[in-house]
Amino acid sequence: MEIKNLEKVAKRISRAIKKGERIILYGDADLDGVNSVIILKETIKNLNGKISAVYFPDRENEGYGITKKGLDYLKNFSPALFVTLDLGIGNFKEVKLAKKIGFEVIIIDHHEILNKLPQASILVDPKQKGDKYPFKGLATAGISFKLSQILLEEKLTKKLRDNFLELVALSTLADMMPKIEENQIFIEEGLESLRNTWRPGLKVFFLIEDFRNQLNLKEISQKIISSLSAADEVDHLNETYLLLTEKDEKEAENLAKKLLEKSRQRQIRIREIMSEVEEKLLRIMKEKIIFEGKDTWSLTLLGAVASRICNVYQKPTFLFKIGKEESQGAVRVPFGLDSVKLMQKCSKFLETYGGHPQASGFRIKNKNLEKFKDCLIENL
Prior knowledge:
five-stranded mixed beta sheet, alpha/beta, inorganic pyrophosphatase (n-terminal core)
């Protein structure tokens, strides 16, 4: 049994390659999104196809998912096959806009389904209604890998398969997907291959002094994930994408060292934000939720901070960066709660929202912040 619509997507991409159609890959800027894009891009390249554009939204400046800024940047590539990876399931308005521009939209995602589905030409998400695929816990990179298996068939050599599985393993761990069934196989095979990887962007980590004395492959993989997660956007691309697609080992080493230093600085800033949040918590410990925002906080760090705060205080945690008119936030909830379903009950106050039961995000008009908070408390 295959994931619903995955064969359909493979046929559509194959047709686009044969006809020389423009293909755009639009991925989330986290590790799962980046790796999903790389797997599909390299799959298409191995079929002698070309990618017209790759785009990762800058979460800090344009938000999560398909963004108007992203579509404005890419509209000159229209008409094109527009494939989203690790996002799109909640972008109802943006998918309509993309179609109006002249894009044929394919969504490949693994996040929770909301009240309805966007009007994409083809939609792949194991959690959508009617999908009988038994395992629902794949990272998007895992779905992208399964798509590559269909597209490449006998052209998927062991070397290429192992290389893709390295990316799938890192994505599965980074996205904290369940380490069971297929994921367990992906992690075991991917990490086993990682030590002897031929991809310069991963190989260099084993040559850097910080890693040489670490024999535990799981510890090394977590340190790699931490470094890759510190990446910023560069000209609509992403530093992790640039590192993992870099062919020159020396240049890859420079990029990796830069990300290692960013990772160290990131951990310092995470601890600083945690302290700021905890200072406020002393005054509001009786409240059912932790709901805090500030205009100086970095949105890209709030997921990590919210995870730590939630783990310590065992309360639903909503942290957000306050903008001029809108705020964007990260959500983490204790095990047993579903953050997406909780926000669904208060969705009338939100511009966009979505993600996983334990980890999600939202965008909201500042005027609705207190109403949203009250609604969340009422529905707990």
